[in-house]
Amino acid sequence: MFSMHYLFVYNATNYIVSGVIAVVFSGVSFLSILNNFIFFRTKPSFNVSLGALIGMSGLCVFFSDEITQVTLRDNTLKGLGLAVIGTLIFSLGSSISRRNHGEGLSIIPSMTIGTVYGTLAMLAYTIARASHFVLPTSITYWASLFYLVILGSIVAFLCYLKLIKNIGPELAGYTTVLFPVVALGVSCALEGYSWSISDLLGLVLVIFGNVLVMRKQPLKNIFISKRPPITHVEVSNP
């Protein structure tokens, strides 16, 4: 969650726009449902199952145009693959966090150990891949790095792991439903991304699927009309 997830997601941005990656990442809640069933034997409710089905269908609709037009040599497919792997790694990290909470481990010490391991893993990867280190001098680079470290990582992960502890990974993953909306807007403004009908329909299905996953009240209650109880009134003859 603190290293390999970033590595795959950021490499995916070399091939596809960040807004599309955000749509892929919104599948975290659906992957968390699968992980809970595999690792914790938690059976999803009807709401969760239906929401996951609709959400995954939305992802398929969203990427229908891209998938039908790419070939095995197309970088778009490579970018989607990297984004999917990064999302899967993040969902597995959420499941490990749930396990840690169940073992009574505190969030901050666990997160500190995780970030140290992640830093060491990325350091080893960088040493193996890079011939030499170069420290950028751009103010924009250091400002964005500071934002990512403080707000995008420490604060964001603390809040997210706290959510996992309180409501579980599948419901905490619902927060990712807002990512595609914001990211696709930024991609339209800065990366030249253009919308299509399938994009809009797929995004709506993804959002609706996440809403069903988050919904506490069983969906079937909507279709059951609640009638007031019948009371018997005794009428005496005058």
Rg computed from alpha carbons, rounded to a whole number of angstroms? 22 Å
**How much strand?**
under 5%
**Counting H and I runs of at least 4 residues, what is the number of helices?**
12
Question: Please, what is the average pLDDT?
Answer: 79
Strand tally: 0
Structure class: mainly alpha
Taken from the alpha-carbon principal axes, the silhouette is globular
Could you tell me how far the N terminus lies from the C terminus, measured between alpha carbons in angstroms?
79 Å
Order of helices and strands: HHHHHHHHHHHH
Low-confidence stretches: none
State the share of residues found in helices, binned by percent. over 70%
Biggest pleated-sheet summary: none
Report on the architecture of this protein.
The structure is a single chain. The protein has 238 residues and is mainly α. The chain has helices at residues 4-12, 18-25, 28-40, 46-62, 64-69, 75-102, 107-129, 139-167, 169-172, 178-190, 197-214, 220-223. Helix 3 crosses helix 6. The longest helix is centred in the middle third of the chain and has 29 residues, at 139-167. It starts with a helix and ends in a 15-residue tail after the last helix.
